[in-house]
Write a structure and sequence with these properties.
Strand content: 15-25%
CATH superfamily of the largest domain: Mur-like, catalytic domain
Oligomer: single chain
Radius of gyration: 22 Å
Shape: globular
Helix content: 25-40%
């Protein structure tokens, strides 16, 4: 929403908004809280996120006044109608890959418009209004939102169960991705992850062209001669076994190699040269809350990360092991949605095991009502605390040192007792745990004087 608002502001719209928590640093007026009195007949359009229900006072007032309303996804689709669209879909890696495509296109002089669901490091939002023909967006599968888009070029990075409040089975999820893929015209192209069997099923019978990316010799786009130093990777990019360029990524993790290859494939088909691909990728320094290093004080490294699915947790902790070999890792993990935790409890317990100490915070519900939970094996996970209690218990049973904390104060107290020189501290989750990470960064000087 913030990125879309920034793009519209840059495009000359008169933009204002409201948010329960407020919004710092915006170039336009943003009110804290929702108030029907802010909606008047002079408005042309009200745009809302999926997190805002129809009973919201501002949405209800807009309906009463006959002011047109759209969801975020609907507006994104309308904007793409006037541009050449590029959309990046997948359970993991959407934001990073979308931002990478934008950077490559900028390096190629294509001047794209970009909407990313996370802000680049050093910026407040991921929205950019360009004057070129292309519009690059992150395409989310939640409630089939990506079916509002009709891109000329698209990527499907992976297809894994994640939104259990939307899709009851893997089959339903793959069907949603298939409908999205069919939005690409016959003259268009989809780039798909070769090693993801679900993705390959989705793109198996389409009228548009399909190219694959990955590590297999059978993939159309490949990363070869991969090497890494302290978590940062270098590789050669090949297209149909022909060398394109060599890239040294400034963002860590092997998962970002595959994000970069997908981004390069999309950007290449938009007209970017090998030189532009290399330049764009090598000046991409990451997004906020994607293993973002906030600083290192008195030999304690503090990072903020958005990982909220077991696959993402594994990728992040594996990358931290490469970045900080031999150092102890402390993870403050905030589960995101009771339904996801209930269905993936065992997977979370395994994925977090690569941390030495885990502090489990309360569940961040995000669009869930208290007491509700999608079908899972642990009925009591509907409570905000019991789901986290169950995860903490599983972690300890698996031999990982895990502790519970329900408040920021309790988190700080545990860190005061256990944090020591040489540790790596990562706050992880898609909720408000990022705020905790930044507060911890400001308070590291006082958490433990003996560090």
């Amino acid at each position: 929403m913030r990125s879309l608002a920034d793009l519209l502001d840059q495009a000359g719209w008169q933009v204002s908004g409201s948010d329960l928590a407020g919004l710092a640093g915006a170039r336009f007026e943003v009110h804290t809280g929702h108030d029907a009195e802010r909606i008047d007949p002079s408005l042309d359009l009200v745009i809302h996120s999926d997190a805002v229900p129809a009973e919201n006072p501002e949405r209800m007032r807009a309906s009463e006044l006959g002011v047109r309303s759209m969801s975020y996804a609907q507006m994104l689709g309308r904007l793409m109608e006037t541009r050449r669209g590029v959309a990046v879909a997948g359970t993991h890696g959407k934001s990073t890959t979308t931002a990478m495509v934008g950077e490559i296109m900028l390096a190629a002089g294509l001047n794209p418009s970009v909407v990313v669901g996370a802000a680049p490091i050093g910026s407040l939002a991921g929205g950019r209004q360009g004057v070129g023909d292309w519009m690059v967006v992150e395409a989310c599968e939640y409630h089939g939102n990506f079916q509002h888009l009709a891109p000329e070029l698209a990527a499907i990075l992976n297809v894994e169960p994640d939104h259990f409040d939307c899709y009851a089975s893997q089959g339903e999820l793959e069907q949603a991705f298939w409908h999205f893929a069919r939005r690409v015209p016959c003259s268009g192209l989809i780039v798909a992850r070769h090693e993801c069997t679900s993705t390959m099923r989705v793109v198996g019978e389409l009228s548009c062209a399909v190219e694959t990316f990955g590590e297999s010799a059978a993939a159309t786009w490949r990363a070869t001669e991969i090497s890494q130093r302290r978590g940062y990777y270098r590789f050669k990019l090949n297209y149909r076994d022909q060398a394109v360029c060599e890239v040294s990524l400034p963002v860590p993790g092997i998962h970002n190699v595959w994000n970069a290859v997908a981004a390069a494939a999309l950007a290449s088909h938009s007209g970017a040269s090998g030189a532009a691909i290399r330049t764009g990728l090598e000046r991409f320094f990451g997004l906020r809350r994607r293993l973002q290093l906030l600083g290192e004080l008195r030999n304690v490294a503090l990072l903020d990360d958005y990982a909220h699915h077991p696959t993402e947790v594994v990728a992040s902790l594996t990358t931290l092991r490469e970045m900080y070999p031999g150092r102890r890792i402390m993870c403050v993990f905030q589960p995101h949605q009771a339904s996801r935790l209930a269905r993936l409890l065992d997977d979370f317990a395994v994925s977090l095991h690569n941390a030495d100490i885990v502090i489990v915070a309360d569940v961040y519900r995000a669009r869930e009502e208290a007491g509700s939970v999608a079908s899972g094996s642990v009925e009591e996970l509907g409570a905000d605390t019991s789901g986290s209690d169950a995860l903490c218990q599983r972690l300890n049973e698996n031999g990982c040192q895990a502790m519970r904390a329900s408040t920021n104060r309790e988190i700080a107290q545990i860190l005061k007792q256990h944090l020591r020189s040489g540790d790596v501290l990562v706050a992880m989750g898609a909720g408000d745990i990022g705020t905790v990470a930044h507060e911890l960064g400001q308070g590291l000087r006082t958490i433990r004087q003996t560090v």
